[in-house]
Amino acid sequence: MSEPAPSTEIHSVLSEGRVFPPPESFSRAAHIRSLEEYGRLALEARRDPDAYWGARAREEIFWKEPFRTVLEWKPPDARWFIEGKTNLSYNCLDRHLSTRRAQVAIRFEGEPEDRRNLTYGELHREVCRLAGGLKSLGVGKGDRVGIYLPQVPEAAVAMLACARIGALHSVVFAGFSAEALQERMKDAGAKVLLTADGGWRKGQVVPLRKNALEAARQVSTLERVVVLGRTGAVAPSDPKEVSWASLVSGQPESLEPEWVESEHPLFILYTSGSTGKPKGVLHTTGGYSVNVSLTTRWVFDLKPDDIFWCTADIGWVTGHSYVVYGPLMNGGTTVLYEGAPMTPGPDRFWDIVERHRVNVFYTAPTAIRSFMRLGREWPDRHDLSSLRLLGTVGEPINPEAWIWYREVIGGGRCPVVDTWWQTETGAIMITPLPGATPTKPGSATLPLPGIEAEVLDRHGRPVPRGQGGLLFVARPWPSMLRTVYGDPERYAKAYFGEQPGKYFTGDGARQDEDGYFWLMGRVDDVVNVAGHRLGTAEVESALVADGRVSEAAVVGRPDELKGTALVAFVTLKKGVEPKGELRAELAEHVTKLIGAIARPDEIRFAEALPKTRSGKIMRRLLRDVASGRQTTGDTTTLEDLGVLAALRGEEE
Ligand code: PRX
Questions:
Q1: Which atom of ligand 1 is nearest to the CA of 428?
Q2: Beta sheet of 104-109, edge-to-edge order
Q3: Does residue 273's CB lie within 6 angstroms of at least one atom of ligand 1?
Q4: Whose CA is nearest to atom 11 of ligand 1?
Q5: Within 10 Å of residue 457's Cβ, how many Cβ atoms?
Q6: Helices (H), 422-469
Q7: pTM here?
Q8: Which residue segments constitute the domains of the chain, with CATH numbers given?
Q9: Which tens digit of pLDDT belongs to each residue from 316-361?
Q10: Which one of 103, 280, 455, 604 is CB 3.0 to 4.6 Å from 268, fit for a cystine?
Q11: Whose C-alpha lies nearest to ligand 1, atom 21?
C-alpha cells in the first residue's frame, strides 16, 4: 500500500470554506475522540486488515460459534468470518432482554397520529410469534419472503422474524407499483409476501393489499400473501390470502433463533443500475451485522438511552441499516414514522422531534432543502433542544443546506455527519466521526478505518488531489454486497469490471488537499431524484412499453429541491399526435409500471433522438439541452435534436 496514512492535521489547513471542529462534548465522550486516534486506527486497519476487522467483529456482535478465518478474498468473491455462527435477530433482541426488556425499542407514530411503543420484551415476543407463523407456512432457512408494508412496527417485526429463522427478506418500498413488486418477487422467487390492507400517505390510503394480490397472481412461487390490518379490516377473499392476526395467534411467545453461518444470506434489496432491470443486491449475515452495528455507534454516537430517528423508509437500505438493525443491535430506541413529512403541516417532523425527545436525527438533503425553503419559522415553533447530532445521506448536500441544517435544526451545537454509502456497501463508508473529524460543509470527509476509498481515472491511475475522478474501494469490507441475486456475472461486471479487484462505486469524487472526499454524483446512468435512486433505463423502458412511443431517452437535470429532476425525450410512432394530454398519460404510465418516484418531471417530444454515427444516444447533449433551455410555451413542439447533434459532431 503506497498511500500515506490519513492526515491528522486538518485544523490547520483551511482548504475550502469553513471548518467546524468537533464539539468538545463529543471529543470527550464519543467512541473515537480525536483525529489522531482515527489516524491510528486507519493505519492499523491498513497494515493488518484481518486483525483489525477480526477485532471489530468480536467486539460488535454475539457469535454462537467463533469464526476462524476473517476473510477469504477471491476477487470478486468475498467470504467474511468463516465458520462463525450468529443470528441478527438474536443480536437485536435476545441479547438485550436481561438488561432492557422494559426499555422502549420502537416508538411508532402513524400519519393519523396514532402512537404505539414496543419494548424490547414486546418486540421479541412479536418477532417470535411471526417467526412461528412463517414456519407454519413452510418458510424455512434460505427461503425468500417479500415485505411490502407501510412504515409500521410490523415492518421491523417482519424483517427480524425472517432473520430469526434464516429466511431472506426482500423489502419492496410501499411506493412501488404492483408491476414493480411483481418483478421483484419473481426475481427473488419469493414464497410468502407480507403486506397490509393499506398504509397512510398524505391523508390517503395506499392500496397495498390490492397491489400485493395483483402481483401474487402473476408470481407462481408466491404461495401466500399475509395481510396486516392497518387502515380498515378486510376479510380475506383471495385463495392465497391469510390474515396476519390469524397467522400469529396461538404461536409461542418465544422461539429459538436459527444459528446461521456468517455468510448465510440475510436479505435481497433491489436497487437501480445503469442498465436493464433492478439488481437484487444480496447481503449476508455476519459482515453486515458487524459493520452496521459499528457504524451506528461510531458515526451516530448511539448510546442505549438515545432516541434515534432515521427518517428513511424501510424499503431502502438506509431504513434497513439505520431504522431497524443498527439502533436495535446497539440497544437504542428507534423512531418509526409512517407518513409524509408535511402532513398535516410543514412542521410535522419538528413536532415529532419535540414530542419524542429525539437525540439523533438522520435525513436526506432533499428534505432539508424543502424545509429550508419553507423558512425557519416552522422549526422555530418547536423545542428541538433534545437533538445532539444530525446526519444526512443519499445525495450530495450543498453547503448552504448543510449550514442551515446545523444552525436552524441543530441550534449551532450539533455536529453534522454527511454520510456517503450505498445499497451495495450495506453500511456507512465515508463520513465524519463526531468526536474526531473537523467538518467542511458539503464534504463527506474521510473514509472509516478499514475502508480504502480511492479516486482513480478510467485507467486506474490515482488522480491528483483537487481533481475529479471515479470513486473506488480498493479492499473488501465486511458489509459489502456478495452478489447480484441470481446473476453473478452482472455482479462481477458492474462492480469489479472497471479495475481488477477494486470495487467501483459508480460515483464521481475528488479529494481536496486534506484528503477530504467531495462526492460529485453518479457517473453512470443512475440518477438520484429526491434521494431516491433510479436507473434512467428503467424509466425509458416503461415509456417505450406504452405502445405509442417509439424511443425514449431519460436524463437528469439539476433541480433545486430534488437534487435531480427527470427529463424524458420521447419520439412517437408514426401517426401518433404529440398532444398535450399524451404527456400526462405517459407520465401516468410510468407511475403505473414503476411508482410515483419515477414519474418524469418533464416530457419533451422530439423528431429523433441525437445519436452518434455508431447509433449511441448522445446523452451528454440531452443533459445539456434538458438543463440549459427553458421549456417553450408550446408544450407540444417537436424538437429537432438531430440538427443539434449534427452541429456538435460525433463526440460521445
Ligand atoms: O450517488 C451516491 C448517493 O447515493 C447513491 C447510493 O444510493 P442508494 O444505493 O439508494 O443508497 C442511498 C443511501 C445509502 C450513491 O452512489 N449518495 C449517498 N450518500 C451520499 C451520496 N452522494 C453524496 N453524498 C452522500 N452523503
A1: 14
A2: 115-119, 104-109, 333-337, 307-310, 360-363, 389-393, 416-419
A3: no
A4: 422
A5: 13
A6: none
A7: 0.94
A8: 526-651 (3.30.300.30)
A9: 999 999 999 999 999 999 999 999 999 999 999 999 999 999 999 9
A10: 280
A11: 395
